[in-house]
């Protein structure tokens, strides 16, 4: 006799919820609306990268790459990050290429945590962290950033560090708030990591998307943090290549050895022709990154102006490509109801804020995330719809 799914499926899988971010993309297609939901650019990647991947295919790069990554790519990453982090990263022993930052993070968690270990994250958080910590059999300790300022509550953070804490994940620039952690904040976290022997796992996927001259600080570059930091990033956001699924994780040799074993059995390796082409991306000069910042600043400012006109409060992003805005003024009972209204009446899809918050957060239903990694014409079309439908009459 066929068993019901809750008995056929594992306890772990039954605890996972479908990703709301990916679901909103499907809903946007179904309703035929403008999608300001998922963090996926709707414009092409740099032309040099398309040429580089064609070249790789012409050269018959079709078989598995070295498990921990194409040698040239690891060398290019070593060059880029040895400068950024301020110490030499050995491409042979300290850098692993993965299937996106997503795989880098799950491989890292499986490689360093034991069942029952606690992993601290900041709330609002990128939704994947909850699922990934669960998959690694660890326990989430969520520390709220104080909204709307997104400041750290130092006392709460300090009290979350105990002998059970194995790691803390810091996502800077942050999704969904756009907060960029300052050197003082990172130093505070680093000091706690040192004191309690906790690993600092970073998610720096938005490292090059920064505004208003705010500087990104690489946590591994802080003094004495080299051995306790695991640095994660990837191609997806900086080079508009979310579909290529190339990321990387950098850590000392001992941790890297463990991550590489997990990575090997999870995926064998990231796509070989795309790794070849990724060398071109990672080797771009400063001009490229300056242009990324310029183009995204224009898009951010356009969306902020749109939200200002309808008097929707938000945290002004210092980095990444999202705006986390408050929707309480529209009087919907839940952010899912707000989403339904956006899909059916306004014609713009956004991500409900509860995706990034714990269910017991008293303001779990008060936010929505808008993404501005879109062509200007998409943002202009969204503005029309938002201004027509969301302006509250005084
Ligand atoms: N980390 C954060 C904070 C993200 O926002 C995203 C994608 O939205 C990812 C990781 C996924 O990165 P990748 O495409 O490299 O797996």
Structure described in brief:
The chain has 394 residues and is an alpha/beta fold. It has helices at 5-8, 11-15, 20-31, 47-58, 71-85, 100-112, 128-135, 154-160, 183-196, 253-267, 272-282, 286-309, 335-346, 376-390; strands at 34-35, 95-98, 118-123, 139-146, 151-152, 165-171, 199-203, 229-234, 247-250, 322-326, 348-349, 351-352, 367-371.
According to CATH, the fold-level topology of the largest domain is Aspartate Aminotransferase, domain 2
| Strand neighbour order, sheet with most strands | 2-9-8-7-6-3-4-5
User: What count of structural domains?
Assistant: 2
Radius of gyration over C-alpha positions, nearest whole angstrom: 21 Å
* Helix coverage percent: 40-55%
Question: What about the largest sheet?
Answer: 8 strands, mixed
Bound molecules: pyridoxal-5'-phosphate
* Mean pLDDT score: 95
Superfamily at the CATH H level of the largest domain? Type I PLP-dependent aspartate aminotransferase-like (Major domain)
- What is the tally of helical segments? 14
Low-pLDDT regions: none
Strand-pairing-aware structural class: alpha/beta
Spatial gap, N to C terminus: 63 Å
CATH architecture annotation of the largest domain: 3-Layer(aba) Sandwich
Mass-distribution shape: globular
